[in-house]
Amino acid sequence: MKLDEAKKKFIQTWGALGSQWGINKTMAQIHALLLISEEALSMEDIMEELHISRGNASMNLRSLIDWGIVFKEFKAGERREFFSSEKSIEELARKIAKERSRREIKPAIRVLKEVSDVEDQSGDAEQFKKTTSELYDFILRADNMLDKITEQKGNWITKTIYKLMT
Amino acid sequence: MKLDEAKKKFIQTWGALGSQWGINKTMAQIHALLLISEEALSMEDIMEELHISRGNASMNLRSLIDWGIVFKEFKAGERREFFSSEKSIEELARKIAKERSRREIKPAIRVLKEVSDVEDQSGDAEQFKKTTSELYDFILRADNMLDKITEQKGNWITKTIYKLMT
DNA sequence: CTGAACTTTCAAAAATAATTGAAACTTTTA
DNA sequence: TAAAAGTTTCAATTATTTTTGAAAGTTCAG
């Protein structure tokens, strides 16, 4: 495959994967573009490359920065801002995992805790409590596991697999 | 909290969590409803409980069955079909993880492999190859890890955490 | 200050995804 | 075999999410 074609395909695929996992397609595409760019890119560059509007670029860049996986860069003698992405894949994955846990999983855990504490005593209520507290326990443990995995610095995926094999 | 309120809140929350992770809200809500129902429910029951149309119920139930987390049940002397969900949370998580890996991660891995094999030799191409193959390696290993974790039968979350702590 | 260069905001428009509902289809009963 | 009971399909509609683009905002050089 030719480089240009490969780049396009990578950006498309990353974008599609993003949507399937609840992340705005353009956001994922900007991220893909920055990942494979040696140099930091200006907003103009990004708009042109992906054929998107200024507003769209601005908003999605902001989100990426909020997620902690894209950074603003300043170049000497240049007024405008440049953007570059976290280049370490491990660090990238760690940040994404942390953010999704914080924004989505932890709030859900709180609700599960809350609803599993229903006051009724009927058989129906007992069944409900049982299911929701099992779910609470499970998700809490899974989330803790995620924390454990991601807090290991350096080659955590490899380390984790190694431990799992023993 | 009262049982009815708790049920509603649980169904809402599960639905919202679904959308955030790329799963149709109604599909997640039907699943939530079945999870907390002792008895299998008919399509009518589900339509009424969630205020959704017959077509919507039918299509989303089908998806849930395709995912392997909801089953049709037949009751003696009843013409219509009843639906119930996988009740073991561990089994549920295992099935969801397996399906998402099969449908989304594995195809993405194939594309990454493909694009990281670009033929050009320029510096630009080398950088692109480097990033995409790192990503390929990483996601491949993460996916293998997921396979490893989910193939352990019985209390796999606990076992995994235990191993991680040693 | 003033205005040029650049970025952000947000209401409106466009694109995408989900939902409806009625017709077609399937299965069962009489 | 007819029709009743139930389910599925899918074109049209509705809801939701994303994107645009122009106005407002900001920063900086002269």
Automatic annotation (TrEMBL), chains A, B:
The keyword Ion transport does not apply. GO terms for molecular function: DNA binding; DNA-binding transcription factor activity. Residues 26-80 form the HTH marR-type domain. Signal peptide: none annotated. The keyword Oxidoreductase does not apply. Belongs to the GbsR family. Keywords: DNA-binding, Transcription, Transcription regulation. Pfam families: MarR_2. Transmembrane segments: none annotated. InterPro entries: HTH-GbsR_regulator, HTH_MarR-typ, MJ1563, WH-like_DNA-bd_sf, WH_DNA-bd_sf. This is HTH-type transcriptional regulator. It comes from the Bacteria.
